[in-house]
Fold these 2 entries.
Entry 1:
Amino acid sequence: MENDPYRGTNPWSLARYIRNPECPCPICGGPTRLTVDLVPGPDGDPVLSIFSRCSPCGKDTEMTAEVLEDMDIVVKVASTGEVHETDMESYGIRKDIEKTCTDDSEGKRKVLSLEGRLAGRLAETRRPAAAVSLGKKVIDGMVALEDYDGAMDQAMATAAVLSDKGDYEAALELYGSLKQYAEGNVSPSAIAFTLAHAFALFSSGDTKESTRLVRETVTATDRMKSNGTIPEKDRLVRSRAYEALGVLLSAKNDKAGSMKAMKKALEDSQDIVSKEPSEDGLKWVNRCAREYAFSAFQADMKKRSVEALKDSVKQCSRFKDTYPSAYCDALLQRAMYISDSGSDVPPYLRGDMDEVISMLNTGKDDGRFDPLLPLAYFYRSMTGMDKEILDGNDMGKAYELLFRGVSEGFVPDSTLIPIASQYVTYLSKNDKEKEESVRKELAALGLFLGSARYKP
Ligand SMILES: [Zn+2]
């Protein structure tokens, strides 16, 4: 359709992206509600009817939505055509930027850090092109102030937005333009940057250069360990380098090499975290254990897989009261390994998931839930009587939670879709009527599974 302000975006999806329980009022700036309804347009196709309904000032303002050429979504005040910031957090950051004086370098640094945060927020609120252009401005500003670590951190965030948009070439170019600051640099930012750069190169097919970069980083962190110069700020830097090597070698189908690297990553992290436990540290160990287990499984050493995962559950259970979320994570990583490897479902899986569900099922006041909870239901659904038979109730519960999260905008579509697809496949064999109603409710959110399209 010509002159389509939504550029082909499904209006139900667009409505869901824009609907917002807390938006700055265009008149008084106070928190207001942005309501979005679908009404028939001039040619019968649905169009969005958007209003900011403010209780502090009592005014309703009509708004319009547009999808720009680069697919960013903007909302405008209908009467003036002025673009309006509808995200409360971005609105606040913009105010802080306006208030900051940039006469000295301290003020300039502060603005750059605020703009970096704003760029992150823009990406999260479906304005990726604006996020990239602001991110690049921040990078240039940081380079000018010789804050190379800051520039590399921002470059990683901006490259991630570019990759999400499918613009891998631009992401690679961005890494290339800053790599001079990472060479020979062993700061945590430089190491993280080099590893991220290596993965971007690998995805583009340059396996030689990516392997060289990762191996160099591994050597550098080995040297740091023997010199005693591992930074306080990131004790796990060596484990991260080995984990990256393990992932890379696994992608190159070097099973033995990958297992060896993952073992190093796991042992190094276990050693550090046992001395300085933290939630993030324990979760990193859990992840290394799962990846090591998977590489051992692929190399036909299943016994080692089970042992490694058992160890990480044991380590986290010692800190169950202080870091309950790390303990749940350990149990879920073990379940993920069982699911990914297609191993037989062990008898303890059900008990593991019962425990995670009872720990996470606390019900927050705002109706939100721990993002790990639907996963626990999903993994528990694998513990039916027969491993081919999933438990429909647990699948349904996982689906229901994620569906609510997506409707209310705190769970991304990409988390719901794979679970919804499996649930619909399950229903198609067991409950046709329920299948139809699930497809209908998904369609009302603008989500269509497979080729079957439902037109409400
Ligand atoms: Zn108002």
Note: Residues 366-456 form one domain.
Entry 2:
Amino acid sequence: MKKFNGREWKTLLILSVLIPIGLLSTFKLTGILSSPATIAETTTLNAAIWKIDPMMGIFNIWGQVKRNYEIGEISTVQCIDISDFNDKSGEYGGSDTLGMNITLAATVKSGFVNRVYISFREDYENSIVYLHNLELLKLSNLTEINYGDWLRGDVKAFLETSNPSRLSNVYLHTPVAWILRSANKGNQTRLLEIDYEITYFNGSIYKKIIQPFQISIQPDNNNDFEDAEEIGLGAHLEYVNSQNDPEDYYKTWLDQGQVCRVQLGYPWFNYWPQTYWYLGLETFIYDPDRNLIASLPYQGRSESTPITTEMTFTANTTGWWYIRVKYFVADHIYTLDVSILNGESG
Ligand SMILES: [Ca+2]
Ligand SMILES: [Ca+2]
Ligand SMILES: [Ca+2]
């Protein structure tokens, strides 16, 4: 029989630890919870999309993407709050990290929610999704829990819970860290796909609803008139910084006679009104011939300065009108809200 020296014993010992962990993760991935025998109907809803530019630095974001789904037998609220970004998170080895909160609530009228399954997928091999050891998980009427995180492969994490008491309403809330580990901070396109799956019994059959979410970080290339990004009405969460994204050009189609309002918001000040004594962006409006027709300069602010600035103008010709937002001082997350004050958009 072969005799092992000290180093070989150590290797054997490590192997004997590794194998059970390997078995465990296989077991976790397969899932241990009971599923209904037959799901008669699966409905996949349209993906809810949230995106932002690659950011440099530390930001509170306060972004949200939310979907309500309601048919007679079930109503759900499914939401992702994007809380913060840190491009060198000390907590995660200096990696760029996006923090978010997952919320799901569902009520079945005359049946019960059977199972909730949330999966996190990304095809970038280096990233990690962390569920904080479920220490901050809040559940109501969901008891059995199975999860995996820090996983390799396309599925980065999953969270599965079931409702053996067959109660009609359930709730789930948990923070999640998407540890991006970008190879090229500031320029990499990233996409995290999060699927919320709810299986329920409506009184006669089991059904499943899948709500996909897409959380993405995409560099913009909207740095001049030619590459202006087409923008619709409503509010958009945007970003500029001095290094790789100093200007954002947008274009929106206006009909002659339309009165358009462009509002710029600084969400940061809603939460930290005492910081940054300036609104560090400049904003410009151009007509379809690219003549400057309005502008808002960089401005200092006191606590009484409004944290939303706006320009209102009347389109004197039909065509693509341009909005240009320019970094002046300090990197900013900003909201850009475009509305038509006299009737529908053209
Ligand atoms: Ca953008
Ligand atoms: Ca931008
Ligand atoms: Ca840009």
Note: Residues 6-30 form the longest helix (25 residues).
